[in-house]
Amino acid sequence: MTSTTAAHNLLTDNPELYEARFPDPDRLAGRWTEDCLRRHGTGERVLDMGCGTGRDAAHLHGAGRTVTGADISEAMLAHARTNHPGPVYVRADLHDFDLGRGVFDAVVCLDSALLYCHTNDQLDAFFRSCRRALAPDGLLVAEMRNGAYFLGRVDLLDAPAVNSLAWQGTAYRSHTTLTVDRTAQLLRRTRVWTTDDGSPPVEQRSAWRLLFPQELRHFLATHGFEVLELHDGPGPRTEPPWQEGQLPGDTTDADRLHVVARLTTPH
């Protein structure tokens, strides 16, 4: 059966399906983030940039922080307001946002959201936006794929990853293929969805910037940040995952990258 290419993203257009596909019942990502913020003694005002369905933003709110969740997807924001209340949710583009000058003590950017900045200009705009948003000594906490992992490794590229789930009475199956675009320095993802209800397969494409540890250090330093932590785990999406009380490691070789940086030269 011939697949059709969707104009939108099935997961971000259907936040309930997203949460079913990527469950986080223990709020591991939110707890890891709160641990980072607490260890570095940051203030209570937090911007969750690329907040998605709002689960992590709501966890940080429950931990006593004043949280703004920002995303470009209206569907995600509507879901967050209804299902994960507490934070203020606003629409903003991580490529270039202005939510006020010096109004946050921390900017959080999880689950590779930062890597949707595909070009150097987009990365510069993101870090400039963070710098503008942060108060003096504010923190940036980010978690993402590690570009360095793909230097000579093909285990994530060899074959499609297949996942199945049932949602609203329909069985969904996804086949996800990753390819490296070395010229553009992108990790391209093709995901084909099939269902058991007779609908034609749907093909969707996206990409992440392959950002390397030393490259990330350079961008941060250029925009006035001091790197406090840069490591490949433990984190919320590592294997094994982070557990309460664990301190960051000192290598950057595995497939996830975690950074905590402090703003030393405000805009």
From TrEMBL:
Annotated stretches, region: Disordered: 232-253
Species of provenance: Streptomyces spongiae
GO BP, sorted A to Z: methylation
Pfam families in the record: Methyltransf_25
Family annotation (InterPro entries): Methyltransf_25, SAM-dependent_MTases_sf
Identification of the protein by name: Class I SAM-dependent methyltransferase
Molecular-function GO terms, alphabetical: methyltransferase activity
Gene3D superfamilies xref list: CAC2371-like domains, Vaccinia Virus protein VP39
SUPFAM superfamilies hit by this protein: S-adenosyl-L-methionine-dependent methyltransferases
Protein keywords: Methyltransferase, S-adenosyl-L-methionine, Transferase
Domain of life, per lineage: Bacteria
Matches recorded under CDD domains: AdoMet_MTases (cd02440)
Positions of the Methyltransferase domain: 46-138
